Amino acid sequence: MQRSATLSPLPHRRVRGLRLLPQLLLGLALLAGGHAAQARTPAASSATPAPQLAPADNPSCPAPAAKDPAVYQAESRKPHPDRGVLWELRKGDDLAYLWGSIHVGQLPWIFPGPRTAQALRAAPAIALELDPLDPATLKALTEAMREDNDRQTLVMRQNPELQTRMGRMAFESCVDQTTWHTNAATLARLIALGMQDMARSGYHPAYGIDLNLAAMAHAVGRPVQAIETAQEQLLAMGLGGGGVPAQLATPDDIRKALDDIDSGKNRQVAQQLATYWESGDLAGLQQLMQDCQCLGDVGMQAALLDTRNQRMAERLPVMIAAQPKLFIAVGMLHMVGDNNLLQLLQKQGFTVRQMTGKGADAPAVAGTPAKAR
Length: 373
Description:
The chain is of the alpha/beta class and 373 residues long. It has 17 helices and six strands. A six-stranded mixed β-sheet has the order 4-3-5-2-1-6, sandwiched between helices. The longest helix is centred in the last third of the chain and has 25 residues, at 298-322.
């Protein structure tokens, strides 16, 4: 996990089955599965030796994220545009900034452009869906990813060819084997395969916006506030326990997800999602969600977006009142479609002004791109 303060503009002082692969992508883009998929445990590391991986020059193996600090230093000296969409939120004397984030990315994306950097400098704290570097949060997410519930265990036991295929794909695409054996739940492994597939196009969880915002804030001693709890996000994924049975994938769901990774459909949707995020194209993003039917299941729409949007809209006004100029980063998909977070904040009395991305500085109608107004 990239923990260096790569973003440094601050002064020092219950879900249904995975019926379509894009739903897996939404799990990567909206939830914290990527952070859990990177976690390590000493016990697993010592108990399960990693087998030899496919050759490093295998085209299925993505280039790893940069580790040399000099690479980050060189990139930090370059000028960077404002990427994504940043909004200003105002309600009376209360002021805050809301940035639509993405949980995977490319190295240049972790360096904010001028307007985003200005908002970060003024912020007394950073608010994220979760703090991805909080040990308790990582523990909760990792524990949920370690094993299947009884229902999913039975599904996999009755379909051993799926387990074999997943293992082969992990080996051929160079998924970290310690992580693979630690995160033994079916959903965790599907997420790992999906993320590795996205990394083949250059989009890494190590360059995720929220992860690097958290790293920057921790490095300079700026508070990181979680809008949700790990348990709430796990419940949204159907992994929350507490008597709620996880409803993961059926054999057909798993086959469809693996087929779409093998065919390249996974990368195609991921690339479109990332392109629309980088350019701040809300209209394109919303159209992509409609075209791919990524939230075609009403239960999934409610669990992953609607319920969470309502919860965040209720909590953010209190956080903003307590921390003027709070900088908030929430997954970009929470900002489009019906009942999006921006609309709900407007109902709470906030005036929303778009500062970056397509349609920036136009009078904002939440979730509606400027050209459509």
